[in-house]
Amino acid sequence: MSFDVQKIRRDFPILGTEMRGKPLAYLDTGASAQKPKAVIDAMSDFYSSRYANIHRGVYQLSADATRDYEAVRGKVARFIGASDEREVVFVRNATEAINLVARSWGEENIAEGDEIVLTWMEHHANIVPWQMLAERKGARIRVAEIDDDGVLDVNHLLSLLGPRTKLLAFTHVSNALGTINPVAELVRIAKERGITTLVDGAQAVPHQPVDVDGLGADFYAFSGHKVFGPSGAGVLHGRHALLEAMPPFLGGGDMIEIVSFDGTTFAPVPQKFEAGTPDIASVIGFGAAIDYLEGIGMDAIAAYEHELLEYATQGLETVPGLRIVGRAKEKAAVLSFVLEDAHPHDIGTCLDGEGVAIRAGHHCAQPLMKRMGVPATARASLAFYNDREDIDRLVDALEKTAELFS
Fold first, then answer.
1. Nearest to residue 235, comparing CAs of 388, 383, 124, 90?
2. Which one, of 208, 193, 123, lies nearest residue 160 by Cα?
3. Threshold 0.90, pTM exceeds
4. Are 336 and 176 in contact (CB under 8 A)?
5. Which residues contact residue 289 at a Cβ distance below 8 angstroms, ignoring those fewer than 6 apart?
6. Is it true that the peptide bond before 270 is cis, omega within 30 degrees of 0?
7. CA distances to 18, 38, 57, 73, 91 from 51, in Å
8. Quick check: is 350 catalytic?
9. Distances from the Cα of 190 to the Cα of 130, 150, 157, 194, 217, angstroms
10. CA separation, residue 164 to residues 87, 109, 139 (Å)
């Protein structure tokens, strides 16, 4: 069956709107994905006729909201290949998920002199929490090299793993370059050395099938708003035994078993890590996003986006003075580039005038920009709702920009 992108585009109301008086070409999915009507309707319906707080109410509305909320946990587990839905912890986003691990697991398992290994291609969300932890505990951050194409140097990473290495934290897909890392191989290497692993899956889960049980990482984090769901719902997947052993991240209602002034006992996982009233409607919307994606199929989405990436790469290579930054063979549909004589912010502004929405800047990856020898890039990040016309308009707008700055 062919991939009917025009039918899909009709599911996203915003793609029928204009920007600067021109049809919107949205190429910033790496920052946040647009939402299908199914997600918008699910949230609107929940707030209009089914809203109540969860877990503590004995009336039907609350019981139904609890049922629907918890059903999403099961959907998420199925979607990412987790066999135990208790291993799915709802958080606000991937950043919060990583901070949860740094604060909870890290405080218990990282000591003075221990080492945390990262890579040069990490988002700040997978750097800063570990730096803060290392500063608190007197630990050391070590960083695995990448080559000029943006590919991880696995041999260098291997050379960094020693007896004091306690954690290997790395991205599944680079948000700035699109590089896809060999997660299963890296997890295997770490496991052989007794090293705990955390994978930032924020740019992988929306664009390819992910099987967390098969990958074997101890922790896997991602954001719902990049998976075509609403802001405010994200996921930390963690191995049950690890989650059980970890102390709570936040204290308050809904994460306790018994509270007295003599002390508190905590609820079992995952509730132990979900203090207070969560963003219930966002989780409901996230569930609708998963239903929508499963209706299309992640294999079909990945194949289509790969074709679109090849088409876009060929198009960008025809623009005078344009250089693509990040040439990994295994790559997701992300195109970072620079243009002679034009700052990325100028590129973004010029494209905005043509109705083309891209991202410009350091992409929350300043160390990576330094490694690639640029202060910033322009970035077009694609999704299954983009079509070749979007790409053609990007290329046309870039040609105009190149001519303007020549």
1. 90
2. 193
3. yes
4. yes
5. 35, 36, 38, 39, 224, 227, 228, 229, 230
6. yes
7. 33, 17, 12, 18, 20
8. no
9. 18, 21, 10, 6, 9
10. 27, 11, 9
- The token duo for 76 is 């998420």
The one catalytic residue in 40, 154, 364, 374 is 364
User: pLDDT digits over 340-371, tens only?
Assistant: 989 999 999 999 999 999 999 999 999 999 99
Which tens digits make up the pLDDT trace of 68-101? Answer: 999 999 999 999 999 999 999 999 999 999 999 9
d(CA 18, CA 9): 14
Alpha-helical (H) ranges within 80-182 are 94-109, 128-137, 154-160
Q: Are strands 377-381 and 359-361 parallel, antiparallel or unpaired?
A: antiparallel
How far, rounded to the nearest angstrom, does the alpha carbon of residue 50 sit from its chain's CA centroid?
29
Q: What is the DSSP code string of 344-388?
A: HHHHHHHHHHTTEE-EEE-TT-HHHHHHTT-S-EEEEE--TT--H
Residue owning tokens 């998976």:
227
Cα→Cα distances 329→23, 182, 316, Å:
32, 12, 17
Q: Is the pLDDT of residue 2 over 80?
A: no
Rounded Cα gap, residues 196 and 218, in angstroms: 6
